[in-house]
## 1
Amino acid sequence: MNKQPVSRRNFLKIAGFALGGMVLGCSGLGFLATRQPEVELIQMQCKGDTPETEKTLIIYASKCGSTGEVAEAIAEVLCDLGMDVDVKLAEEVTSLDGYNRVIIGSAVRMGNWLPAATNFVKAQQTQLAQLPTVIFSVHLSNLGDDEAAREARAAYTAPVHELITPQAEAFFAGKMDLARLDFLSRMIIKAMKSQNEDKRDWDTIRAWAREIAG
Ligand SMILES: Cc1cc2nc3c(=O)[nH]c(=O)nc-3n(C[C@H](O)[C@H](O)[C@H](O)COP(=O)(O)O)c2cc1C
C-alpha cells in the first residue's frame, strides 16, 4: 500500500481537532461531575402581630436543603411568638432595609461557610453593624462538647467574626443526603465513609430560637 506522508498543514488540523475534542470532553465531564441534582430551597414569610417596623430577616445558604429546614424551624418559633419573619436565600438579598434584626445561617463545607453566606456578610457588613445579628451553622463534623471539637467549630465561622460581631451563635448538627450531592461531592463523602444521616435536633434548634427571640 502506498502511504502518503501527512502534510504539516493536515497534521496541525488533526492535532487541533484532537486537542479540541479532549478539552470539550474533559470540561463536559467536569461539568457533569459538579452538577447537583435539583434541590428546592425553602423561602417563606409570616406576618406577626408586632408593628410593621419589627421585622426579622432569616437568610441562609444551603446546598442540599437541610439548612433551609433549620431556618424554617427557627422562623416558625418566631412566628408563633408573634413576630414578622422573612426567610430568604443569601444570594437573593441585596438590602436589609425594613428589617430590625438579622439571623444568618449557613451549611458548612470543607471547613467553611458557603460562599453565598460569606459574600452576603461582606456585602452587608456596614448595615449588619447597625442591626442585632445572630448566626448559626449547620454541619456534621466536630459535634462533640470537648475543647478540640469546640475549637474546630469556631474555625468554621472565624472569617465571619472578622467581619461582624454577632450577638449569639449556634452550631447545629446537620444532615447528609447522598442523593442530593453532585457526583464529585458524593465520591468525596463516600471516600470519607460517611452515609445518609439526619442528626438535626429539632428541640435544640427550637430552644435556641426561643432564646434569641428574647
Ligand atoms: C462535600 C461536603 C463537605 C462537607 N464538609 C463539612 C465540613 O468541613 N465540616 C462539617 O462539619 N460538615 C461538613 N459537611 C456536612 C454538611 O455541613 C452537612 O451535611 C449539612 O447539613 C449540609 O447542609 P445543607 O443540606 O444545607 O447543604 C460537608 C458535607 C458535604 C456534602
## 2
Amino acid sequence: MPSPTASVAGAADWPEVAALRTRVFVEEQGVPAEIEQDDADATAVHVLSRDASAQVVATGRLLLDGPVARIGRMAADVAVRGRGHGAAVLAELHRQAAARGAEVVELHAQLPARRFYEREGYTAVGEVYEEAGIAHVTMRRGLP
Ligand SMILES: CC(C)(COP(=O)(O)OP(=O)(O)OC[C@H]1O[C@@H](n2cnc3c(N)ncnc32)[C@H](O)[C@@H]1OP(=O)(O)O)[C@@H](O)C(=O)NCCC(=O)NCCS
C-alpha cells in the first residue's frame, strides 16, 4: 500500500470534506453541528487525503489571519486511522502554510491526539483547557 498523499481541496470537494467532519466530530465525538462548521471555513485552506477508492478519508484546515498560521478540524475516518492519512494531511498543511509565508503553526490538540502531534514536531504550550466539551492543549511548531 503506497503512503497516502494529501492535496488542497477544491470547492467541489467541500461536500465530502464536510460529511467526513460531521461523521468524526458531530456523530463520533458529540460536538454540536452548529459549531462544527463556522465562518472560517469560507476562507480556510482545506486539505484532504483519499483512499484507494478515491473516497475522502482525512482532512484538516489552515487559517492564515496573522503571523501564526492555525491548523484545525483534523479528522481521519475511523476506518483508516493509523495508516498515515492524518500525517499526510498535516504535512500538506505545513507546506501550504510555509508557501504563504508562515513561520509558526499552532493548533488546539485534543489530549488523546497529543502524541500524534508531538511525533510531527509539535510542543505543548500552556495549560489544558476545555473546548467543545473536549480537553485540549495548544501546540506549536516552527516551519522550515
Ligand atoms: C488525530 C487523527 C486525525 C490522526 O489521523 P490518523 O490518520 O490516524 O494519523 P496517522 O495514521 O498519520 O498517525 C497515527 C498515529 O497517531 C496516533 N494517534 C492519532 N490519533 C490518536 C488518538 N486520538 N489517540 C491515540 N493515538 C492517536 C496513533 O497512535 C498513530 O501512531 P502509530 O502509527 O505509532 O500507532 C485521527 O486519529 C482522528 O481523526 N481522530 C479523531 C478526531 C480527532 O481527535 N482529531 C484531532 C483534533 S485535535
